[in-house]
Structures are given as structure tokens and as C-alpha cells.
């Protein structure tokens, strides 16, 4: 079982966490101004890279905070974790 | 006849153990395994093979054995154990298996548990390399855990009669072990198999704590324990398994791995037979031949596939009367059960030249496979070692080191040196400084050379040449797979089933890979070995479940009023983790009669239920209204303090995810309710939006589900009952309007009473602190006695709401249903510029007229009850498939109020179909139903105000 370093609590077992999909997908400023296609992009489409991927995690059985992590999807290695609202750190790929 | 030697081994010869195998009463000694005790009694035939029914014996001495599957019958039935790993105890009753066992029909009374352990260095395997690694790490001050699957340390040394530094090797082992045990921070676990390696130094190990005690196992001590070990560094000293060579008739009982025969001799004092032919491709089997010959076994011949026999060992054999046939192989065997003859011929296949040697035992050695299972599980890359004919660790990992014969090294001193180095570097990586280097022992072993011939199989009858003895998979099966065009070992494994039995191909996998490479004409170095997966050895579900069984399987949540429900005979329904009263049967009542009675009493007089499990979330802050406006489809910020609004929540895709009431407690405070099963999910949903999208909003959410006991009081007499227990409250319709709430006292305790209804009847929802829940419930029961107040459960609640066409989220909906599909456009705000899901309502897909929509269904025959989940079709006769399905039945009940059965359903273009007749396939018939509006009872809402 992987250890996930919560930016608030430190390394904890992955069973304490909940996955939240791709990070930095902001809720559109004005959904009514979007075309159906643009709205569908927001609702249904997400990246699925082989390699580093910025994604959201929630420490749901711990501090209950949402945070972001860059994970290499090939190895599951967590390359960086950072608090919600912070910019994505530069990571080696 | 006994095959027990007069002396030797680590068994306790002074104590006799009685056991029963295949109905025969036999004896053995403490220290025996079931396998060694059987061999001591001359029993080689254990079971039979799963497909062909051929007799199966004992091939190896340990957990790599492919054949000796037994069913233990007493003390407690347990299937699929290996005779070679079952430690003998008095009273054991077992029988051999034909491939498959039988689970006990009764619950296992034994206790299983789990324990967490944290350490700096975990060493797997207590053979020479593992002991050296553990001692080196321990001397550095690191916290060390040493696990080993055997009941005593020593590893390969247990199976030989060799000296280290002019002392029996057991003395060296005992010294190392004694120092380990006396070092603080060191944990040595015997009978403990590391079976799974996971990320970040997480290792699972199974400890068999009392299995070996049999009937004497103390109650209250966990029989098996799963160790959940988190370590900084790992040293794998998992050893090597001898592999056989495949030849025609290689599956007969009495055909055994040479080193395993040596282990049976030295560890258990057991001879494998009277007359043994040894077939080898390397030096190590010579030691077995010589040791057995010196112990009284007639060894007529060593058949060595190599063109030249090793000179020194051949001389030693000649001195003992053992003929050595170099360049020869065993090409076949005879025997109705156990082997009786071996056919020996030159490897180069000179036609017609063949000798038959009478024997009751054939000992085989095809070389050694390093045990790389755990290394591979740790995602270490493997490399093919052509000299060894095996996959070995092919890279260094940051936290995992491999030492000893698991690397392919077969020289004992070199193995200890590797262990010492691995232990030191693991300690350094974990932040410690090695101290006091242990000296390397010198072995007197005859057989340390690794020069061997890599030989997977002897050409012959492919259908009689078994690769996987447990799966009855032969060379012919492998060639059939390659002939069918399969090239990947993973595909061939699945096609032939080789390596999928209990042993996971420990002795067969490498050979299968070799035969495939030969058949395809490719290099093994270019082949990708099959992936090793946990568990390394079989682990029972009971052990994995541990204490999480029965009542402890999952937390059980009960309400404050629960004891009353139990005392009054309620049957319970699980809703999430909650126990909810389902219905309250009276004498002689079944579900239907009880529910009809509960419904009738509620609609005609007054009923009451325990609604405490309803999710409740306290939402506070300056922006609470703004926040709820985004979450719900309807407007919440305009709700006046003192009033209540029903709300629907959607996902961004516009599909309904939950519903409930929102009451405005104060200017900056709301209390929202969720469906029972969704409470945690909706709180998470709120937190997610607050933290990730709108952190600037001043809103705080807290679950208060368990703080409140909630009692819906329902029916035309509910006003009278409430008036009797709430003297401060003006219960008149004018003073206490529908969808408002009042703080007051009920039965003398502070209460918040809401006028809401989930049944269409006049109803009040009484909320008090959980502490007072039971007392208030009892007071209401007493006050309602003169009206025949009737407690009802979830089933009646479901019927009452369904008669009114109120959907239950999760029953009428499945994440593909919009508020509009449910006929709830009235709950979708047209004024708000945005809320979650709004934009999706404008999508073309959401506006199709043929969406599935909620309607009522009335079976034409009013006594027919449609099964929930039934499909709905258009015609009274089923056309040729594929049949177009219009939708499905979501709820279906008999109704006291309607005097007939009815159902709710999601039906394509349902709102347009009202009045149509559709058909529901039930078993072999098509039941005609009439489509109606979803509201079937009191369409005018006349009953709401009493
Ligand atoms: Zn945390």
C-alpha cells in the first residue's frame, strides 16, 4: 500500500485518501456562455497521460483537505504534492 | 516397513504422534511434516491428478511442492494444504486430494488477526544469507524484522549434513539466532511467509501461530496472523528452488527432487525409498546420491546428462558402488502407481539403446531457480542467466536488495558474504552505521560448483511428459499452444494453465518458458517472464479477513430509538451501515400483510417512524445561501427564516444526485437533509466545491446526523397527537403552515418540529437531541394510543411515498436521470444565473423527447405485482431479438389506499405515453400495464393539511 504525503499531515497510507481526478480543471466562469462542445469538454473530457499527471486527492479519512499531486501514472510515484490553490511545481518527467 | 533412519534429523524420536491418512492409522514424530511422516511409513501416493486421475506423490520437501495436496478433516476441515507444509500433530486426520478440496460448511471457530509492524530493515528468509543480513543490520542498531516460512531458521542448511567452520551448521545457525534474539529491536518470526510486496516498503506476511499444535491449540490465541510490515529497507534472501527435468512418465509417485530427498533424510530422518536412480544435469544431486547411499539406500546409478561426469564426485560414487552414466538421460518410467523402473538411454538418442533399471525412487535435478517472486513483485526487472538456466534479479532497487541463492549464487560462503553486504548497505540506507563485521564461515560441502547443463526436457512421448503436474499440463499442451500461434508466456500460461495451480508454477514455470523458447526458436533472454503476483503461497480468506468478520465486518450504526424497535419485534433493513426498522410484523403477519396494515393505519389515523438516519448537515456562514444556491437546482437564499424548501441536487452533468429538505435556521445558517445512504457523500460533495472551487466563500459544513433523533408523525390524527405532547405549540393549520418549522417543547424536552410530508398526509417531523429520542418516541406512542398509533418501517414509508409519486434517489434514479425526467421541473429555478448542472439542462441530449421519464404503471390485472427491475416492452408479443426495451420498473407494491398493486417506472417518452398499454415480461408471460402519471393517490393534495 502506497504512502501518500498529505501536505497537511505528512505520509499516510493510501487507504485514507480519496481520488479526485485531474487537477486544475476550473469550473467555467460563465457556463451559459459556453457552446455545448465547450461545456462537454469541461464535464466529460479529462487527460489520460502516460507519465506525470497533476491530479486531485482528498485526505478523506484524515484532515479531510483536498490537495493536488503530480503522479507518474507509469510507476505511481508521487513526484510532488501541493496545497489547493498553489501552482503546480516543476517536476522532472 | 519403516523408512525412518535409526538416528539423525531434528525430530523428537521419543514422542509418538498418531494420525490418520486416507483412512490408515499411522505414526510419526514431533518435527515431522505430514509428508515426511507419510514417507517414513512408505506412503508415496498422496492423491490423484485433477484432470487425468493419475496418482500423485511428493515431489519436493517444502512449499514449492506441486503435488502433495491434502484435505485436512480434523481438527477442522481445511482444503488444499500441502503435506510438505503441514506440521504433524497428534490426532491429525487428512486425505489426499484429486486437485480440489472442500470448504468447511460450518464457520471456522478459530480466531485470525492482523498486526502492524514498523522496522528499518526487513529480511525475508532465515537461511545463511538472510541470517547474515539480519545480524549485520541488527548490530548497526537498526530495527530488524526477520521472517522465515519454516518452523526453524537455517534455510537450505536444514536439508544438508554439512559443517561450517568444523562445527555442524546448526551450531552456526543457533549462534546467529541467539545473538539476534538478544538484540533489542530485533523481531524474529518463524512460520511466517512474506507473501506480498507492495509500494513504499509495505510487505504482507502470514504467520501460522498455532496450526502446528492441532487439537492442543489454545483457545483465544489467533491461529494465524497477517503481519502488515512497513519497512525502510528490504533484504530478500529467499533462496532457490531445485527444478526437475521433464521426461516421459515423470509424474509417477516416487519421482522426487534430489535435494528434497536429501532434506527428508537430514531434517526428518526419512529415506525416500529402497532403490533410487538419480538423474541430474549438475553436481548437486551427487551429494544426495552419496548421502542416501551412506544411509542405506541402494543407489544403482547416477544418470548425468552432461557429456562428462565431474571427476572427483564420480570417484566418490565409484567407491560406494554407484555407477555414473554420463551423457545419459532418463527417457521413461514404468509403474502402475509408484515408479518401478527407469529407462535410461544416451542423450544423443542412439536408437534402440536403452537400459531398464529397477527402482522405487527416481531423484531428479535440473538445476536451481532463484526465488525471485518477491523481487519481481517489487517491480524489479529480471534477467535470464544462461549458465543457470533461470531468471535472476537483473537490477538494483533503491530499497530492495537480494542476497544468497536468490541471486543465483550457490556457494555457501559467497551467499553469506552477499547477505552481510546486503545487511550492511540496507542499514546504511536506513541511516545506521554497521558495526562488528561477522566472520564468513567456511563450508565442507562437496557440491558448490554451479556448472550444469541446462536441460528442460528429454525428447519422448510429449503426452506423457508433464510440465505442470498439478494441472496435468504436458509438453504436448505447450507445443499445442505455440502451434496455435501463441508467443507470449503470459498467453501460453493461460492457454495451458501451467503455473496457475496452488504452487503458481514454482517448479514448472521456468521449464515451461524454456520449452516455449525452444519451440519458437527464440532466446530466453528475449522472453519476458510471466509476472509474479501475490500471494507467494496460499493465504486463506479467513486470515485475510482477520477480526473483520460477523458483527465486526463493518460498523453497525443504530439510532437512539433502536432498543424500542428491537423490543417491539421490528425486522431490520440495512441502509448503508444503518439498521433501519423494515416493518413491525404482528403475530402471523408476513411482509405484505404487515405493510398493508401499517399503511392503512397511517393514512386513516396516525403512524410514526424513526427517521433519525436521515443525513443532516449544518451549513453556516455569511455565504451559506449563495453556496446552497449553487448546489441546489432551486433557490435557497430567498428562503425565509422559519421556512422549509424541498431541494434537488445535480452533478455538473445535470443528473440528480440527491434530494432533501432545506430549513433556514437563521440569516447565516441552514440545516439540510440528505437521503440516508448519501449523507457522507453529500458532505464530501460540499467540501469538494468549497475547498477546490470556492475557497473564498465563508461557509462551514458539519455533519449533525447523529446529534438529532428525527420522528415523522404522519396521518390525519397526527395533529391531535402532537397537540397532546406539545402544549406550547399552536398546531392549527393557520399558525403552523405546511413547509414551516417551530422550536418548541415536545414531551417536555426542547424540540424542532417541521411540517413536511413524504406521504401526502398531514405530518410533522419532530427533531430532538438524540439523548431524548427514545423518551420522546415513547411519549408519542402513549399520546397516540387512543388513535391506534402505529409504528411503521421503511417498507411502508416506501409505499406511502410511491403512491404519491415521490422518487427515492438511488431507486428511481441511477445517475442518468434529470429533474425533468422525474417530472420535477417545478424544483428547477429559472431565476438563478447558474447552479451546478444548469448548463447541462440545455444540452441536446437532455432535451430529447425520448428520454426515460418517471411514470406510474397499473397492471391491467390489479392483483399482479410486477417484479422490481422488470423490463418494459411495447408489444404484446416479443419480436425477434434484439427486443427494444422501453425502460424498467423501479418500484412496485401492493397498495392499501388504491386497493390494488401499482408500480413506478422509467419509460422512454413516458410522459407522452400516459394512457397507453405497455407490456412487462414476467417469467414466460407478458403482463399488460397501463401507463399513468406518477402521482396515484390524492392528486389534488387535499390530505396535506389534515
Ligand atoms: Zn491530511
Automatic annotation (TrEMBL), chain A:
Domain of life: Bacteria
Molecular function as annotated in GO: sarcosine oxidase activity
Biological process terms in GO annotation: tetrahydrofolate metabolic process
Protein name in UniProt: Sarcosine oxidase subunit delta
TrEMBL record, chain B:
Protein name: Sarcosine oxidase subunit alpha
Keywords recorded for this protein, A-Z: Cytoplasm, NAD, Nucleotide-binding, Oxidoreductase
Matches recorded under InterPro entries: 2Fe-2S-bd_N (IPR042204), BFD-like_2Fe2S-bd_dom_sf (IPR041854), FAD/NAD-bd_sf (IPR036188), FAD/NAD-binding_dom (IPR023753), GcvT/YgfZ/DmdA (IPR028896), GcvT/YgfZ_C (IPR029043), GcvT_C (IPR013977), GCVT_N (IPR006222)
Highest taxon of the lineage: Bacteria
UniProt xrefs under SUPFAM superfamilies: Aminomethyltransferase beta-barrel domain, FAD/NAD(P)-binding domain, Folate-binding domain
Lineage: Bacteria, Bacillati, Actinomycetota, Actinomycetes, Pseudonocardiales
Species, as recorded: Lentzea albidocapillata subsp. violacea
Enzyme class: oxidoreductase
Entry-linked Pfam families: Fer2_4 (PF13510), GCV_T (PF01571), GCV_T_C (PF08669), Pyr_redox_2 (PF07992), SO_alpha_A3 (PF17806)
Family designation: Belongs to the GcvT family.
Amino acid at each position: 500500500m502506497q504512502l501518500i504525503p498529505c501536505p497537511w499531515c505528512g505520509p499516510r497510507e493510501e487507504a485514507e485518501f480519496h481520488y479526485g481526478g485531474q487537477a486544475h480543471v476550473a469550473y467555467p466562469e460563465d457556463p451559459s456562455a459556453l457552446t455545448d462542445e465547450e461545456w462537454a469538454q469541461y464535464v466529460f473530457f479529462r487527460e489520460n497521460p502516460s507519465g506525470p499527471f497533476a491530479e486531485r486527492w482528498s485526505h478523506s479519512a484524515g484532515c479531510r483537505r483536498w490537495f493536488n499531486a503530480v503522479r507518474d501514472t507509469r510507476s505511481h510515484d508521487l513526484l510532488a504534492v501541493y496545497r489547493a490553490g498553489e501552482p503546480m511545481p516543476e517536476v522532472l518527467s | 516397513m519403516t523408512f525412518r533412519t535409526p538416528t539423525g534429523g531434528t525430530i523428537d524420536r521419543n514422542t509418538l504422534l498418531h494420525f490418520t491418512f486416507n483412512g490408515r492409522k499411522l505414526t510419526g514424530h514431533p518435527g515431522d511434516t505430514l509428508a515426511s511422516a507419510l514417507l517414513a511409513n512408505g506412503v508415496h501416493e498422496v492423491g490423484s491428478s485433477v484432470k487425468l486421475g493419475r496418482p500423485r506423490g511428493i515431489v519436493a520437501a517444502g512449499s514449492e511442492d506441486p503435488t502433495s495436496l491434502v484435505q485436512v478433516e480434523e481438527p477442522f476441515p481445511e482444503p488444499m494444504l500441502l503435506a510438505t507444509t503441514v506440521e504433524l500433530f497428534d490426532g491429525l486426520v487428512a486425505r489426499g486430494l484429486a486437485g480440489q478440496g472442500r470448504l468447511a460448511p460450518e464457520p471456522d471457530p478459530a480466531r485470525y488477526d492482523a498486526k502492524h509492524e514498523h522496522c528499518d530493515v526487513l529480511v525475508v528468509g532465515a537461511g545463511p544469507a538472510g541470517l547474515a543480513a539480519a545480524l549485520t543490520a541488527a548490530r548497526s542498531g537498526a530495527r530488524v524484522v526477520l521472517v522465515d516460512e519454516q518452523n526453524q531458521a537455517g534455510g537450505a542448511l536444514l536439508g544438508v549434513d554439512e559443517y561450517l567452520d568444523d562445527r555442524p551448521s546448526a551450531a552456526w545457525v543457533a549462534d546467529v539466532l541467539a545473538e539476534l534474539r538478544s538484540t533489542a529491536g530485533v523481531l524474529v518470526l518463524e512460520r511466517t511467509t512474506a507473501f506480498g510486496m507492495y509500494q513504499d516498503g509495505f510487505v504482507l506476511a502470514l504467520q501460522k501461530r498455532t496450526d502446528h499444535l492441532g487439537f492442543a491449540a489454545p483457545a483465544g490465541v489467533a491461529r494465524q496472523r497477517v503481519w502488515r510490515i512497513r519497512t525502510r529497507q528490504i533484504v530478500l534472501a529467499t533462496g532457490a528452488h531445485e527444478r526437475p527435468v521433464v521426461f516421459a512418465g515423470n509424474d509417477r509417485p516416487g519421482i522426487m527432487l534430489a535435494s528434497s530427498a536429501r532434506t527428508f533424510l537430514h531434517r526428518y530422518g526419512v529415506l525416500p525409498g529402497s532403490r533410487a536412480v538419480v538423474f541430474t544435469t549438475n553436481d548437486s544431486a551427487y551429494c544426495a546420491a552419496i548421502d542416501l547411499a551412506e544411509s542405506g539406500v541402494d543407489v544403482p546409478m547416477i544418470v548425468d546428462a552432461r557429456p562428462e561426469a565431474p571427476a572427483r564426485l564420480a570417484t566418490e560414487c565409484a567407491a560406494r558402488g554407484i555407477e555414473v552414466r554420463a551423457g545419459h538421460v532418463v527417457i521413461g518410467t514404468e509403474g502402475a502407481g509408484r515408479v518401478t523402473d527407469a529407462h535410461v538411454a544416451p542423450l544423443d538418442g542412439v536408437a534402440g539403446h536403452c537400459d531398464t533399471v529397477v527402482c522405487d525412487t527416481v531423484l531428479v535435478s535440473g538445476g536451481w531457480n532463484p526465488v525471485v517472486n518477491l523481487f519481481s513483485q517489487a517491480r524489479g526487472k529480471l534477467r535470464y542467466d544462461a549458465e543457470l538456466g533461470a531468471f535472476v534479479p537483473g537490477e538494483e532497487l533503491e530499497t530492495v536488495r537480494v542476497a544468497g541463492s536468490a541471486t543465483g549464487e550457490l556457494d555457501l560462503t559467497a551467499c553469506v558474504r552477499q547477505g552481510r553486504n546486503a545487511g550492511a548497505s540496507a542499514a546504511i540506507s536506513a541511516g545506521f552505521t554497521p558495526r562488528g563485521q561477522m566472520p564468513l564461515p567456511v563450508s565442507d560441502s562437496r557440491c558448490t560448483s554451479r556448472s550444469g547443463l541446462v536441460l528442460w526436457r528429454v525428447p519422448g512421448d510429449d503426452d506423457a511428459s508433464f510440465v505442470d503436474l498439478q494441472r496435468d499440463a504436458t509438453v504436448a499442451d505447450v507445443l499445442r499452444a505455440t502451434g496455435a500461434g501463441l508467443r507470449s508466456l503470459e498467453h501460453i500460461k493461460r492457454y495451458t494453465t501451467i503455473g496457475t495451480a496452488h504452487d503458481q508454477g514454482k517448479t514448472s514455470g521456468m521449464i515451461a518458458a524454456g520449452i516455449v523458447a525452444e519451440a519458437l526458436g527464440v532466446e530466453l533472454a528475449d522472453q519476458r517472464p510471466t509476472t509474479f503476483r501475490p500471494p507467494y503461497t496460499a493465504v486463506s480468506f479467513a486470515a485475510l479477513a482477520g477480526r473483520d468478520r460477523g458483527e465486526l465486518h463493518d460498523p453497525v450504526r443504530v439510532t437512539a430509538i433502536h432498543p424500542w424497535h428491537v423490543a417491539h419485534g421490528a425486522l431490520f433493513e440495512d441502509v448503508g451501515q444503518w439498521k433501519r426498522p423494515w416493518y413491525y410484523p404482528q403475530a402471523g403477519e408476513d411482509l405484505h400483510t404487515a405493510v398493508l396494515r401499517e399503511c392503512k393505519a397511517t393514512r386513516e389515523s396516525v403512524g410514526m417512524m424513526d427517521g433519525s438516519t436521515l443525513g443532516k448537515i449544518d451549513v453556516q456562514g455569511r455565504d451559506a445561501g449563495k453556496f446552497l444556491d449553487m448546489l441546489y437546482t432551486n433557490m435557497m437564499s430567498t428562503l425565509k427564516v422559519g421556512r422549509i424548501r424541498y431541494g434537488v441536487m445535480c452533478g455538473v452533468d445535470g443528473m440528480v444526485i440527491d434530494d432533501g429538505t432545506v430549513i433556514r435556521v437563521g440569516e447565516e445558517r441552514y440545516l439540510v437533509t440528505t437521503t440516508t445512504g448519501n449523507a457522507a457523500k453529500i458532505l464530501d460533495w460540499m467540501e469538494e466545491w468549497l475547498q477546490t472551487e470556492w475557497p473564498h466563500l465563508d461557509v462551514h459544513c458539519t455533519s449533525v446526523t447523529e446529534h438529532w433523533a428525527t420522528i415523522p408523525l404522519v396521518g390525519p390524527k397526527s395533529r391531535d397527537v402532537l397537540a397532546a405532547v406539545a402544549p406550547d405549540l399552536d398546531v392549527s393549520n393557520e399558525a403552523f403552515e405546511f413547509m414551516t418549522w417551530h422550536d418548541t417543547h415536545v414531551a417536555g424536552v426542547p424540540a424542532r418540529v417541521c411540517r413536511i410530508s413524504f406521504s401526502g398526509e398531514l405530518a410533522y417531523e419532530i427533531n430532538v437531541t438524540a439523548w431524548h429520542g427514545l423518551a420522546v418516541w415513547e411519549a408519542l406512542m402513549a399520546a397516540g394510543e387512543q388513535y391506534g398509533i402505529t409504528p411503521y418501517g421503511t417498507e411502508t414509508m416506501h409505499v406511502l411515498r410511491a403512491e404519491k409519486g415521490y422518487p427515492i434517489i438511488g431507486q428511481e434514479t441511477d445517475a442518468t436521470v434529470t429533474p425533468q425526467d422525474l417530472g420535477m421541473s417545478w424544483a428547477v429555478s429559472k431565476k438563478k444565473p447558474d447552479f451546478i448542472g444548469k448548463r447541462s439542462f440545455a444540452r441536446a441530449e437532455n432535451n430529447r423527447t425520448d428520454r426515460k421519464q418517471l411514470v406510474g404503471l397499473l397492471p391491467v390485472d390489479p392483483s399482479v405485482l410486477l417484479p422490481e427491475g422488470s423490463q418494459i416492452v411495447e408489444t404484446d408479443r416479443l419480436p425477434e431479438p434484439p427486443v427494444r426495451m422501453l425502460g424498467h420498473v423501479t418500484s412496485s407494491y401492493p397498495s392499501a389506499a388504491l386497493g390494488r398493486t401499482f408500480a413506478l417506472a422509467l419509460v422512454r417518452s413516458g410522459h407522452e405515453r400516459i394512457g397507453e398499454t405497455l407490456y412487462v415480461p414476467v417469467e414466460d408471460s407478458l403482463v399488460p400495464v397501463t401507463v399513468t402519471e406518477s402521482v396515484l393517490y390524492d392528486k389534488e393534495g387535499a390530505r396535506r393539511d389534515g
